[in-house]
Amino acid sequence: MAEAGVLICDDQELMRVGLRMVVDSQSDLTVVGEAGDGEEAVAKALTLRPDLILMDVRLPRLDGISATAQVRAALPQAKVVVITACDRDEYAYAALRAGAGGFLVKDTPAAEMLVAVRGVLRGDTMLAPSVTRRLIDRYVTGAVAPLTDKRLDILTDREREVLSLVARGLNNTEIAEKLFLGETTVKTHVARILTKLHIRDRIEAVVLAYESGLVRPGG
Predict the structure, then answer these.
(1) How many CB atoms lie within 10 A of CB 67?
(2) If you average pLDDT over residues 203-210, what whole number do you get?
(3) Residue 103 is inside which H or E element, if any?
(4) Under 8 Å CB-to-CB from 43, ≥6 apart: which residues?
(5) Average of per-residue pLDDT across 17-28
(6) Residue 59 CA from chain centroid, whole number
(7) What is the DSSP letter of 122?
(8) How far apart are CA 87 and CA 110, in angstroms?
């Protein structure tokens, strides 16, 4: 299996050194570069084309959320894990909206960080447990009123059903089994959903499903 290239973006040299040691200790991961500010992070991402970027939220010149959005727009295949010293909900939510596949706090143990990195590389969404609980409370249990999003009106009933299952964390195989469909058919439905909604990936689809109220408690 080829090594996954990782770009480390943090304005603190000590943090970059620590992350490099963790990443380079793994046989399937390798650090391909470092950046100390957001503009440098975007430039190096475009040059080095890493498989995954560890992106700090607070960066000079360009913040990590904006840098994440720029990188994901230019390199949709690149994965991003946003890291921060504090697990504020608005940071986590903004990171997901920008296209990040993971959100971790800096005191996350190395073993857990590596699990998250590998999960994001596989296409999963990985969040710090405390953030997950609060986001569920806020956006899934009804603490925030759903937004009206007319984009959902253009989906067929089957596509809305598939989207709701994607939002609940089911993968294509599990959706196929639940709906008695072929896995290829499910992949086609997901692709059409992303195209119709003008969104990049499953992460944005999940956020939209929660915001719009398509996925509700007990549904």
Answers:
(1) 29
(2) 77
(3) strand 102-105
(4) 35
(5) 95
(6) 19
(7) H
(8) 17
Q: Do 197 and 205 contact (CB within 8 A), yes or no?
A: yes
SS (HEC) of 31-100: EEEEECCHHHHHHHHHHHCCCEEEEECCCCCCCHHHHHHHHHHHCCCCEEEEEECCCCHHHHHHHHHHCC
Residue pair 155/191 in contact by the 8 Å Cβ criterion: no
Q: Which residues lie closer than 8 Å to 88 by C-beta, 6 or more apart?
A: none
pTM flag (> 0.70): no
Q: Are 190 and 196 in contact (CB under 8 A)?
A: no
Nearest to 58 by CA among 33, 38, 42: 38
Q: How far, in Å, CA of 188 to CA of 193, rounded?
A: 9
Tokens of 7: 């770009």
Query: CA-to-CA distance for 39 and 146, rounded, in angstroms?
Result: 35
Residue 90 backbone zone (phi > 0: left; psi -120 to 50: alpha; other: beta): alpha
The Cα–Cα gap between 1 and 98 comes to: 29
> Cβ-count burial of 128 within 10 angstroms (0-12 exposed, 13-18 middle, 19+ buried)?
buried
Q: Distance between CA atoms of 211 and 53, rounded to whole angstroms?
A: 26
pLDDT digits (tens, 9 = 90+) for 67-85: 999 999 999 999 999 998 8
CB 29 within 8 A of CB 23: yes
- 119-146: pLDDT as tens digits: 889 887 787 766 655 555 555 445 444 4
